[in-house]
Amino acid sequence: MSVDPAEKGVILIVDDTSTNLEVLFDFLVNSGFKVLVAEDGESAIQKVEYASPDLILLDVLMPGMDGFETCRRLKANESTKDISVIFMTALSETVHKVRGLHLGAVDYVTKPLQHAEVLARINIHLSLRKLTKKLQEQNLLLEQEIQERKRVELALSQAKDELELRVIERTAELISSNQQLQLELDNRQMVERMKDEFVAVISHELRTPLTSIHGSLGMLAGGLVESTSERGKRLLEIAVDSTERLVRLTNDILDIKRIESGEVRLAKQICNAADLITEAVDLMQSMAEKAGVVIEVSTISLQLWADPDRIIQTLTNLLSNAIKFSPQGNSIWLTAQRQGEQVLFQVRDRGRGIPADQLETIFERFQQVDASDSRNNEGTGLGLAICRSILQQHAGRIWVESTLGEGSAFYFTLPISKIELIYSTSKNRGGGSNHGNQTHSGD
C-alpha cells in the first residue's frame, strides 16, 4: 500500500541554483516527501502562503532578498511563523549561523550538502513539528475542556452561593425567632426568679423590720405607750428606721434586677476620675463625721468613659461599708491610680476584716460577713452585688483583699477613655504630661 507523500511531509526548497534544486528535489522525492521549489525569496514567500509546507530548506546567499530576510519575513507573519526553517549555507563563520538561529531557524546544513545529514535533520524537525502540532491540538482541547469546566463550576458555584444565601437567610430567620422565644422565656424565668427571691427576702430579711414596725405601731395604737413620751418617740424612730431599711432593700432589689436584665441603659460619657471621687466623698462626708471616721483621699486626673452616676453609686457603696465597719476615730482610704489602660480604684479600711472563705461570696446577693450585719449595720446584702453588676457593664472588675483583725481593701478597675489614651501617648512622646495625683483628707 503506497503512502501519500504529503502525509510524510511537504518540503519547500528555496535555492537560486538550478542544479542544487534538481539534485535535492530528486533526493527528497525518492525519500518519500512531497517537494515544492522556489528560486528566490519573493516566490518562496508567495508559495508558503498557499502551500503551507511543513519544512523549508532555505539558501542563505541569493540575489535580491537573501535567506536571512526571507526567514525574517516568514517569522514575522502569524500564519507562517511556526514553519520550521533549515538554512543551507556555504558560510562557515559562527556569526552567520548564530544570526540565522536568532532569526528563527531551527537548524542549518553546510554546503556542499551531505544527503544523509540533510535527511536526518529533516526527519528530526518534521517529527518535532508533528509532536508540537499534536501538543498544540491537545493543549487547545485541554483549554476548551478547562473553559467548559470553569463554566460548569461557575454555574455550580452560583447555584451553591444562592442556596447558601437562602440557607443563611432562613437560618437567620430561625435564629431570630429562637432568640425572640428565648428572650421571652428568659424574661418569664427572670420574673419567676424575682418572685421567688422576693418571697425569700420577705420570709428571711423583712421579717425583723416588719416585726419592729408592727410592734412599735401596735403599742402606740393600743395606748400602751404615749406617743409624746420618750419611749413613744423611740418606738416611732424604730418604725421609721425599719421602714427606711425596707425601702432601701426594695430599691436595691429592683436596681440590681434592672441592671442585670439590661433595662437600665448606662449613660456613658467622658468623665474625670478625680471628679467622681470628689463627689462620692462629698456625699459620704456626713455619714463619716457621724461615725467619727476620717476619709483620706488620693486622686488622679484621668478621663474615663463611664456612667458617672453608677460609678459614684459604686464608690458610695464601698465607702458606706468601710465607714460602717471602721472603729470610731479611725481613717478609711480612697485612692485611684493608673495601671496601663485602666484606672485602679481602692477603698481600704481598718475594720474587722473578712474570712478568706467569704472573699468571693460577699459579691453575691444577700451575702454578708455574718448574720448580724444587715441589722446591726443597716445593710441589705445587695450593695456589693450591685457594684459588681455595674462594673461588669463597664468592662471592669471588682475584688477584695482582707486580713481578719486588720481590715479590708476593695479594688475595682475601669478602662481609660480612648481620647485619654491618645492624649497620654502624644504627651509622653512630647516629654511630659499634665496629669497628676492629688492627696487630701475629707473635711
Topology of this structure?
Elements: H1 5-8, E1 10-14, H2 18-30, E2 34-38, H3 41-51, E3 55-59, H4 67-76, E4 84-89, H5 94-103, E5 107-110, H6 115-204, H7 207-221, H8 230-261, E6 269-272, H9 273-291, E7 294-300, E8 303-306, H10 308-324, E9 331-339, E10 342-348, H11 373-376, H12 383-393, E11 398-403, E12 407-415, H13 418-430, E13 437-441
Parallel strand pairs: 1-2, 1-3, 3-4, 4-5, 7-9
Antiparallel strand pairs: 6-8, 7-13, 9-10, 10-12, 11-12
Helix pairs in contact: 3-4, 7-8, 8-12, 9-10, 10-12
Quick structural overview:
The chain is an alpha/beta fold and 443 residues long.
Question: What would your notes on this structure say?
Answer:
- There is one protein chain.
- By secondary structure, the protein is α/β, with parallel strands linked by helices.
- Among the domains are: 7-137, 3-Layer(aba) Sandwich (Rossmann fold), CATH 3.40.50.2300; 268-441, 2-Layer Sandwich (Heat Shock Protein 90), CATH 3.30.565.10.
- The protein is 56% helix and 17% strand.
- It contains 13 helices and 13 strands.
- It has helices spanning 5-8, 18-30, 41-51, 67-76, 94-103, 115-204, 207-221, 230-261, 273-291, 308-324, 373-376, 383-393, 418-430, and strands at residues 10-14, 34-38, 55-59, 84-89, 107-110, 269-272, 294-300, 303-306, 331-339, 342-348, 398-403, 407-415, 437-441.
- The strands form 3 sheets. The chain has a 6-stranded mixed sheet. Strands 2-1-3-4-5 form a 5-stranded parallel sheet, with helices on both faces.
- Helix 2 links the parallel strand 1 (10-14) and strand 2.
- Helix 7 runs antiparallel to helix 8, helix 8 (230-261) runs parallel beside helix 12 and helix 10 (308-324) packs antiparallel against helix 12.
- Mean pLDDT is 81; it is low at 371-377.
